[in-house]
Amino acid sequence: MQRSFRAGAKEVAPLLVGVVPFALVAGSAVTDVGLGILEAAACSIIVFAGAAQLALTQLWGDGAPLLVVIATALVVNARFVMYSASLAPVISPEAGRARPFLGYLLTDQVYAVTVLKGRENGSRPVPYYLGAGLALWFTWQVGTIAGAMLGAVIPASWQLDFAVPLVFLVLLVPALKVRADVEVAIVSGLAAAALVPVLPLQSGLLVAILCGAAWGAWRAIGEDDHA
After folding, report:
1. How many angstroms separate the Cα of 102 from the Cα of each of 28, 68, 79, 160, 166?
2. Helical H segments across the chain, by residue range
3. Predicted model pTM
4. Residue 64 DSSP label
5. CA angle 54-57-63, nearest 5°?
6. Residues contacting 14, CB < 8 A, separation 6+
7. Widest CA span of the chain, in angstroms?
8. Which residue range forms the structural domain that includes residue 89?
9. Are 57 and 187 in contact (CB under 8 A)?
10. I want to staple 4 with a disulfide (CB 3.0 to 4.6 A). Which of 9, 123, 168, 206 is the partner?
11. Residue 27 included in any domain
């Protein structure tokens, strides 16, 4: 168990390099809209989802109604339902009563390393997942608090916002192993670029994911027909 836990933490470690500036952006965004360090820490602990934290912080700063803020965070985080369905066959046999806590730790990075490597070299999926999840959780909390404390003194010329897409690109590129994967990534990316700016409540992200999934399903059906 300890071996698997350490393996998960080790595997996610390189991704933390991109998570740190992402966390700094999320933390500084909270103080930029007039909230304090305690609010930044509470948001980070309760929500624990970078894209949703940035979206709801921006809406809060713009004076959006509370229900709109909550609905937006739920829509942005809807992708985790798909992640959960994909991870279930990997970790369900061991999850047991820990399933709610495992769900809380679910992030893009933890999902990627677990679904791709959680069973390699004899690792047990749940301890592996916990090792990756807790390593990222602690990094995220420290990073967001640091961002809230230092946001006002971080030079705008540093342009830390680059870290947001960079984190996801680091996850995406190694997973593109066959042509169908590349096609799904292209379809999802183009759909997101077109829909996110125009659809409300950040729902463009969810629709883009569904477009990519639909393309992947269509490609799979086509391959089965030719088999």
Report:
1. 27, 27, 16, 29, 25
2. 2-32, 37-47, 50-61, 66-76, 79-95, 99-104, 108-117, 125-150, 163-175, 179-195, 203-225
3. 0.76
4. -
5. 145
6. 170
7. 60
8. 2-158
9. no
10. 123
11. yes
